[in-house]
Design goal:
There is one protein chain. This protein has 14 helices and 13 strands. The protein has 307 residues and is an alpha/beta fold. It has a seven-stranded mixed sheet, with helices on both faces. Strands 8-7-9-10-11-13 form a six-stranded mixed sheet, with helices on both faces. α8 packs parallel to α10. The radius of gyration is 21 Å and the shape is globular. This is ABC transporter substrate-binding protein.
């Protein structure tokens, strides 16, 4: 019996659409969710809206909270695990190619470390450094120096962001931390020396306690935060470029249109193509910033509109 998302009426629609054409290279793709509600439901509903005739069959693999559909998952050519929790459960119980979606790069690395022999690929949520820097230039054009806190899991990104900052005409000032206890002193040094603070989803920096410290301290210094999620903006960051569940569904559908049995023969990491922006207009007003409309920001970040 199909469980978890049968009430979404997704699979009957997908099955009808996908059955229109099924060449020899068609794959059986099973979707397994961490939760049958929230962002994972949004991903599924958006996938339904974005699907056009494909050559693959998509089946319900269930969800962690309501039960995984073992027979479907065992027969799949590819398992798509939606969220870190589903990915971990799938890795414990099943072999074969797995594509993890709605996960961060740090979560993907952690799963690879825990399951080194797995055939695990990911469609990560982390956006290219250039997008973050374009966002900074668009929402705060007077920013000349951007501060960045680097945790142990983000050391390889320091040079990437430094190059992206230089390409955008700003300087990057980074500070490395090894523990949560290092955060506040390094944060205060950064805020004193920089015009804005850029946050990336490093596990130490992204914890709830760390986020609270960062938001309160930046507010005291009156320095804008440029973040990576809509929730961070709602909590008090100035702006963010991020992937919504709808963005990820669109990227997944686009990938699936050209995917074949060999697409995941070697593990790979797929970066986001689609993106969204969020702006806290109240924070912008308090900082005296006249931030462009969301539409203009999207164009600026995509590089289709000049300053």
């Amino acid at each position: 019996m199909l469980r978890g998302w049968r009430t979404f009426f997704l699979l009957p629609v997908l099955a009808t659409v996908l059955a229109l054409s099924a060449p020899a290279c068609a794959m059986d793709v099973a979707l397994a969710l961490s939760q049958s509600s929230g962002p994972h439901r949004q991903f599924l509903e958006a996938l339904q809206r974005s699907v056009t005739p494909l050559s693959h069959h998509i089946a319900d693999g269930g969800s962690v909270d309501e039960g995984l559909n073992t027979p479907v998952l065992e027969q799949a050519d590819v398992i798509v695990a939606v969220g870190a929790r589903a990915t971990e459960e799938i890795l414990k119980k099943f072999r074969g190619p797995i594509l993890s979606v709605l996960v961060s790069r740090a979560q993907h690395r952690s799963l690879i470390a825990a399951f080194p022999d797995a055939e695990l690929s990911a469609m990560v949520l982390d956006h290219p450094a250039a997008r973050h820097m374009r966002l900074a230039s668009a929402v705060a054009p007077n920013v000349r120096t951007v501060g960045l806190i680097i945790g142990p899991d983000s050391l390889d990104l320091e040079k990437v962001f430094s190059t992206a900052a230089a390409d955008s005409g700003v300087s990057l000032l980074s500070r490395r931390i090894g523990t949560v206890e290092d955060l506040l002193p390094q944060l205060e040094q950064l805020l004193q020396a920089s015009d804005a603070l850029l946050m990336i989803p490093d596990p130490i920096v992204a914890s709830q306690a760390s986020a609270r410290t960062i938001l309160l301290t930046s507010y005291r210094y009156r320095k804008p935060i440029l973040a990576y999620s809509q929730a961070y903006v709602q909590a008090g960051a100035l702006a963010a470029v991020y992937s919504s569940p709808e963005d990820v569904a669109g990227d997944f559908a686009a990938w699936l249109r050209t995917a074949g049995p060999e697409s995941l023969s070697q593990p790979l990491v797929l970066n986001p193509v689609r993106f969204s922006v969020a702006v806290n207009r109240q924070v912008a007003r308090s900082l005296g910033l006249d931030v462009p409309s969301d539409t203009e920001l999207m164009e600026r970040i995509a590089g289709t509109r000049k300053k």
